[in-house]
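Suppose you are handed only these lines of text.
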Amino acid sequence: MNSSHNIGCERLIVKLREGGITDERVLEAFRKVPRHLFVDNPIQAYDDVALSIGSGQTISQPTVVAQMTQLLELGKDQKILEIGTGSGFQAAILAQFSRRVYTVERHRELGDKARLRRREPGYANVTFKVGDGTCGWIQHSPFDRIIVTAGAPVTPESLSAQLTTGGIMIIPTGGRSAQELMVYKKTDGGLESQSAGQVVFVPLIGQHGWKE
Ligand code: SAM
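From them, the structure of the protein bound to S-adenosylmethionine can be written out as follows.
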């Protein structure tokens, strides 16, 4: 990373702290994963904004990526499922903490582009698939953590069924243009839910999501 990226990144870290990110491991992951490699136009890479990545999709706002990562309470031995690879940035952040990240993207051009970035440092433990993530990834289930980075009308039962007992799932649910960020913890007694606030995500489109 050159010095202008370092300055931009440190400025972003200050913003993340101001936004309530207290987990130092999350902040360190933002230092390690160069966001400018995941966007087409690197000029705004370290601004706290969502940016277009093509196919009508976006790389999420850094504050939101950091908040969702922190809410997952990650540990080194965990297996994570991400729905909505997009640029691959969130997957690369998750890869810093976990044993393996499985990530699914419905747009082939985005999935293929993200897969090409696998050569970046600290990104080898990510497995990519192009397909409908609303069905999860049954072959690799159950997952210790599930993160959905697109907005669903309701929480798909197909995903909660692939979460381990003791696992955490984060998913924006609600309207097509604005949602509530839901945090689920799976216990022996079922799913406990909590809202982490309002968010705006592109729609989750698929069999158990919105129709195209
Ligand atoms: N996590 C991404 C990143 O770090 O760049 C940002 C994700 S973007 C906000 C949401 C992504 O979800 C889009 O790329 C969209 O194509 C994808 N998506 C929507 N519905 C999907 C589905 N059923 N399965 C997989 N991906 C889906």
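What can we learn from it? The mean pLDDT is 94. Strands lie at 51-54, 57-59, 79-83, 100-105, 126-130, 143-148, 163-174, 179-187, 190-199.
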